[in-house]
Amino acid sequence: MAAANTCWSGENFSCSICLDEFRSPVSTPCGHNFCRTCITKFWDEQVQYKCPLCNELFHTRPGLRVNTLLSEMAAQIKTSVRVKEQPFVDSAEVPCDVCTGTQLKAVKSCLMCLISYCQTHLEPHQRVAGLKKHVLVEPMDRLEDRMCRKHDRLLELFCQTEQVFVCQFCTEADHRSHRVVPLREEYEVKMAQLGKIEAEIPQMIQERKQRIKEIKDAVELGKKDADREIADGIQVFTALMRCIVKWQDDFNQTVQEKLKITEKRFEDLIKELEQEIEDLTNRSSEVKLLSHTKDHLYFLQAFRPLKNPPPTRDWTTVEVRPPSYVGTLRRSLDQLGEALNMEGKKRCDAAELKKVQQYEVDVTLDPDTAYPGLILSADGKQVHDGGVRKKLKNNPKRFTYYPRVLTRQSFSSGRFYFEVQVKDKTAWRLGVARESIDRKYAIKTTPEMSYWTLHSYGDEMVFNDDPDVHRPLRAKLQKVGVFVDYDEGVVSFYDVEARVNLCSAIGCTFSEPLYPMLGPGLIEGGANSAPLIISPVNQTD
What we know:
Helix content: 25-40%
Number of strands: 24
CATH architecture of the domain at 360-535: Sandwich
Structural class: alpha+beta
CATH class of the domain at 360-535: Mainly Beta
Largest sheet: 7 strands, antiparallel
Strand content: 15-25%
Strand order of the largest sheet: 12-13-24-15-20-21-22
CATH superfamily of the domain at 360-535: SPRY domain
């Protein structure tokens, strides 16, 4: 018997379901042997209980008993049974769940058994009729995650209402009224969305690369601006230091001159005192000599000129004090501060104007917005009051109360600068306004009403605000520059020829497109007929 056993193949001691060595072999009433786990799982999935090999039908689920003899014999030849010509599993692959000892690479996973099989252990699914109906997929881990935890059934449906995976039993309970579709249908929908996402991603990547380039360009531009700012600062501070050195020399000279004047006065007083001392000393000698004479006549004759002392000053009334320098330094510093402020402001304004002129924009006047009495040049660069209000078609864009006109161009970000000639004008208004301004009625031209303008009339300029900012009208003002930094909320006005800042408004809020605005004012008895002229920027050092 023992000799016969040695001739048996390892297949005689393999389970016909898992095709592996028996693990806890049990016998069915028909006499066939299977692993306890395999036959139990097989019957769990069947409506009727039958033998996987002979198909004998059992009316009730048979009781299973361990086949002790078969277990012992299987153990004896276990080490001799090898599965040949199959790849072993590595860390990146799915192992066969049936293999004992060294696990082989799984080639399929069964969604019904929830087990992954190597090529050998997959054979029953390709041979046994009941197993052929199982759904096989590419190998995958964690097959238990595909089972409904509540009903222990395969998750083969998708609830679109709650966006969760469900089994068939779920659709008859908690998800009865929900929109439920097969996984494949949801898969196709999501796959279409994925395709759209896949197509959009390269564009998104390109947009972000472009944004990176813009940021890097902005950084480089910032570095260049910083270098220019430092260079301008060096020029300004160098000029201020020269001014300080000059004022220091002037201060030293003032103190020295005051000291020299005092020293000269004291020297003159000392000379006068020394002269009086010499005269008194001589008189003392004469008196002493006369006091020793015995000649009465000579004594009386000489006594008369000696009885009165030589003429001297009343020195009790003469004040002798060192020079006082109290307040000298403070006065000099006050004067220096004023000089530095003027010099610094002058140089800063010049450097600032040079910077903002780089943001020059080409703008032209929009005749559709012009007050009916205004006359515009053909090129849209000049405007003046014609003295007669024309009858024009009603246009919601047109100013009908104030003599003003907007440009065709508007700006919603960044910085822009333009210059307007105001030579020979007695009244004018320049600046920017929001697109939504009221153009039909008399309103305050303040930031609150969406205007940021500088107005000239008489001998002063006014930036309308609450309160208004008044500035004296600069002599020989010929050209005004207007600069706007939309993002930073800054509006500045400059005397271009003198390179001086006239007025600046900071902390402004711009929430709409801004339009440059020109107001040439009305003709006043023949005066103020000169036009406002949008001029090209001449960037000079």
